[in-house]
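R.M. (postdoc): so does anyone remember the format we settled on? I'll just put the structure tokens first.
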């Protein structure tokens, strides 16, 4: 798993809006390794989905890629023409969208939607595409595929619609699969089945997966690495074990503390305040106004990444040699201990 398949370097993306220029992504860097699952976690508006839409080349017309590179197969995806991108999007890089109902054409039979994806990606003749579509439907766990082939999206449950979307994403036989909050619209039991399916498909096809979510709990048992985003920046990056058992940024502490925990009767913890207005990004650490551990420098100067281990970095002044790192909140300590005992994450 040492080979880098995708590299994002100093990516900065803004959007033209009525009130000004929204600075959505502000200089992010990450590598995706062959065969790994990398999670990108953060609140709505942190820049997660914008980042992966840039990788897919599906940003809206008011988007501006101000700088940076997205390197894949020796090419910078921010600079290649649409004709060339068309050969990559949906073929070598597939994507599962958040809302399966809006991702599917409501007036087209699902079999036709899958076969069209196959014919577009692999230039299959109609009958071969039909056979392959049925195989994909069975592979993603849709029962009675031959009968359901001619049904419409409204005739499927939310979980089954998401399985259809996954089948379409696999039609081009991609090597990278981007999952943009694929379980948000699903109930908990269906969510678990979809996560298991994505995990199994990843193993069977040796895929590299980018998993976007606002919920750290969703990726607890499937991510190899985690990037935590806030206000358009990655504020902490590490292995799944490092992020869950040794979090270093106060924002990561807050995200972990706010996870619902059915094993206790504690009140649900919330993160105070709201994310900043990205037309006017705050100086210093963007999380400072919501951070009870913030120091004077947090309001004045942006923190660099501090190295914790060879794989774990966090952008917080609390890691400066002259700063005094506070103890983890008691609720977070208790939660980490319960995760250790449960074996959900292995150190």
């Amino acid at each position: 798993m040492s080979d880098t398949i995708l590299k994002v370097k100093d990516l900065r993306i803004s959007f033209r809006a009525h009130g000004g220029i929204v600075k959505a992504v502000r200089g992010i860097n990450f590598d995706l390794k062959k065969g790994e699952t990398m999670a990108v976690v953060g609140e709505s508006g942190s820049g997660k989905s914008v980042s992966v839409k840039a990788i897919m080349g599906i940003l809206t017309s008011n988007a501006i890629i101000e700088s940076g590179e997205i390197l894949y197969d020796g090419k910078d995806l921010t600079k290649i023409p649409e004709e060339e991108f068309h050969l990559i999007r949906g073929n070598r890089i597939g994507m599962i969208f958040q809302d399966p109902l809006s991702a599917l054409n409501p007036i087209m039979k699902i079999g036709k939607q899958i076969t069209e994806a196959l014919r577009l990606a692999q230039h299959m003749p109609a009958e071969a595409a039909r056979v392959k579509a049925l195989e994909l439907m069975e592979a993603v766990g849709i029962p009675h595929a031959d009968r359901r082939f001619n049904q419409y999206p409204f005739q499927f449950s939310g979980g089954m619609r998401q399985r259809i979307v996954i089948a379409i994403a696999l039609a081009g036989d991609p090597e990278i699969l981007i999952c943009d909050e694929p379980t948000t619209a699903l109930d908990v039991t269906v969510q678990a089945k979809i996560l298991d399916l994505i995990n199994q498909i990843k193993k069977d096809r040796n895929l590299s997966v980018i998993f976007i979510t606002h919920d750290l709990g969703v990726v607890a048992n499937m991510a190899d690495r985690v990037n935590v985003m806030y206000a358009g920046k990655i504020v902490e990056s590490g292995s799944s074990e490092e992020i869950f058992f040794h979090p270093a940024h106060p924002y990561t502490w807050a995200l972990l503390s706010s996870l619902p925990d059915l094993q206790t009767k504690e009140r649900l913890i919330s993160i105070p305040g709201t994310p900043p207005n990205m037309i006017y990004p705050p100086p210093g650490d963007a999380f400072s106004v919501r951070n009870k551990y913030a120091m004077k420098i947090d309001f004045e100067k942006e923190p660099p990444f501090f190295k914790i281990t060879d794989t774990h970095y966090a952008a917080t002044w609390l890691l400066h040699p002259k700063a005094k790192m506070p103890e983890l909140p008691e609720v977070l300590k208790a939660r980490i201990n319960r995760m250790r005992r449960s074996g959900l994450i292995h150190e």
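R.M.: ...and that's the designed sequence above, right after the tokens. Also worth knowing: The chain is about 30% helix and 20% strand. The chain has a mean pLDDT of 92.
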